[in-house]
From TrEMBL:
Domain PHB de-polymerase C-terminal residues, every copy: 202-401
Classification via InterPro entries: AB_hydrolase_fold (IPR029058), PHA/PHB_synthase (IPR051321), PHB_depo_C (IPR009656), PHB_depoly_PhaZ (IPR010915)
SUPFAM superfamilies reported in the protein's UniProt record: alpha/beta-Hydrolases
PANTHER family given in the database record: BLR0908 PROTEIN, POLY(3-HYDROXYALKANOATE) POLYMERASE SUBUNIT PHAC
Protein name: Polyhydroxyalkanoate depolymerase
Origin species: Rhizobium changzhiense
Record gene name: phaZ
Amino acid sequence: MLYQAYQFQDDLIAPLRDLARRLQMFSATAFWNPGGEMGRQFSAAMEMISRFEITHERPDFAITSALIGNRMAPVTVESVLDLPFGTLLRFATDTDAKRPRVLVVAPLSGHFATLLRGTVQTLLRDHDVYITDWANARDVPLSAGRFGMDDYVDYIMHFLEEIGPGAHILAVCQPCVQALAAVAVMSEERHPATPRTMTLMAGPIDPRESPTKVNELAVSKSLAWFENSLITGVPWRYRGAGRRVYPGFLQLVAFMSMNMQRHQDAHRRLYDHLAKGETAEAGKIKTFYDEYFAVLDLTEEFYIETIERVFQKAELATGDLTHHGRRVDPVQIRNTALLTVEGGRDDICALGQTSAAHDLCRALRPHLKRHHLQANVGHYGVFSGRRWEGEIYPVVRNMILAME
């Protein structure tokens, strides 16, 4: 009944949000001066109420152009391969130049792939960029079957096959484990689409290193607790009715609870900016939370297997990870260059968890391995923002360029 209770509460609040939007529109033509202090404060209060909402639809990537060389080139987003639980998207640019092809593997952890909008925008400067656009499990009918960790690895390999030989892979956060597994399997099979480079950014290759609150929570409870407390059925109003899922709204609450004071302060600043008519400053905060409050559900099997196999048993680090029953052996990776990136202030994936990949890929020659530690950035700063653009991205670009 967990999902039904959430949906019932959201349905009750929806009329209040709608009323707030109407009153906000009315305030623009009210008898008081809408541009005055009272009008701005009223409008700000109504907008804050109208924004009290979690959405379950993927926002638009809103990437229409990219800086390529010394000009802004138009960008169009196209679907390359559409599968039930995920779509391979390509950001096609208006350029005739041959550019390295990069598959960005987005996390499947409660948010949509659009969370990596800034990552993609920066990569487009020098690369032909593809991304894994994961589906919201509540919108996938039961007839599509299950989607677990092995299926996730399969999807990565299918996407690399579709892109073709000579591509590169860049995984952010949670899918670093699956990306490394996919490359190991493809390397062992001598698959022609095995990527030339593998960039792993802030991912739990070995979560036993410097455990964070996220890691500690995953190992502090039994699998039965996660199944009984966090897994629920999709309501009948949705295409995935009856599917057992870990709801995205629960993941959002978990993330927010880790830094609740920061989110409260951000919304206080948002109100102040709105009340003062500081639209540019307010816009930055609204843009972030529009993305942050857009959530997707995970299938029960993927979530539970991730808790057990990635965090509780650390199967990749211990050498026990399997793919459809066959052991995954990172030593098979001999020709795919490895770059790992960690943030010095990452409170989700701490120092040492991602760089552990170097010990696992011990067959790689020294010139094919590199680690980059970015000081003074948290988890999101590893793949978005000023430090990503100015300091981390050049390292990623140079690694890819060196293997072209």
